[in-house]
Sequence to fold (436 residues):
Amino acid sequence: MKNQAFNHSLLSFLRNSPTPFHAVESMKATLLDNGFTELKEKDHWVIEEGGNYFVTRNASSVIAFTAPELNFHTTGWRMVGGHTDSPCLKLKPNAHVVRSGYHQLGVEVYGGVLLHTWLDRDLSLAGRITVKLDSGDRVSRLIDFKDPIAVVPNLAIHLNRSANEGFSVNPQEEMLPILGLAKSEFELQSVLMTQIEKQYPGLNVKEILDFELSLYDTQAPALVGLNKEFICSARLDNLLSCFVGLEALLAGLDSKQPALLICTDHEEVGSLSTSGANGPFLEDVLQRLSPNPEHFVQAINRSMLISADNAHGLHPNYSSKHDKLHAPMINSGAVIKVNNNQRYATNSETAGIYRDLAKQEGYEVQTFVVRSDMACGSTVGPIIAGGIGVPTIDIGLPTFGMHSIRELAGSEDAYGLAKVLTRFMDTPVLMSNEEK
Ligand SMILES: [Zn+2]
Fold:
């Protein structure tokens, strides 16, 4: 795939993945199209040499891996990690609010949302619904309204004269999307029932038991800039890395080296969940692939994880926010993220390996270290490294407006990162095993 075609499929992946559930569904479809076999955690696994597999947990996290050979303790796994969730507004259980003559939705803020960016956007609703069928079975289905059905309008400047001097938002009172006028009929349960019947005719739903729904911006992802230098979209953090990781895995299917992609939910809220990176999902899978305890440790020590999550590019309007010598530029390659206080898991060996592989592929590498007078973010890298002991590097593509409803990345960076990751997944020996 060339850069343009690559970006084109990236944009459609972003558009079709309004929630982690939908992102995993999109990835699952791509994996099945490419001959991967789905495993269920409840079942007994028979892994065959030469097979390609994936497994999901909570329908919002996925691990896909290749098994060109089964002696994982002699090969290790080339792992790439990302996360499927993004900061957003999620519906509260009792979501129907009526205020001042309007139907509104009560919302909970998920993760570190840049709240003001959600104002004046044409919002839709998507997620998972758990229902009881006429047959008595309980099942879950994904729904997506697709149409804009709600909006959080700004307050006029005339009613808030100091809005441009500093703007704060009270999420309990001021972020409630408006659905319509209260004089019209509205009952959330029946609207959800209509939507599920529309998407799943013949399902015979008796009642809705519960739901996990979030709002999202209906504006489609786009290439922007005089020369289309930029990708503007919701959820670039971190569906950009999930897409790149998946493309890299698929591009390397002829490799003799076992590779693994892990994309987990709940990173934006600390990753501690059954399906998050701080839960047992990865270890459960790896132990089933390498059940002998000594072999497991050998396999981990022959492995490496590239944790991919976006980095902060130097913003021309806010250039003082970066350390001048660690100020990544858009479209100048992936960024190695370093934090010696272990907010990132990068060390000189994992960084050295990445630099060398990128150079061999002909791509530039940049570095990011947060200013010494500012706090540093973190991601799944240190969590997985600390959990199973795998040597790890944190990298990411430079972006602007992280956690905005519409983020910006470079249109040349994603393709280059996929190339380097494919090479990594095909690299048998990472560091020499000589005596030190
Ligand atoms: Zn992220």
Q: What stands out?
A: The chain is about 25% helix and 25% strand.
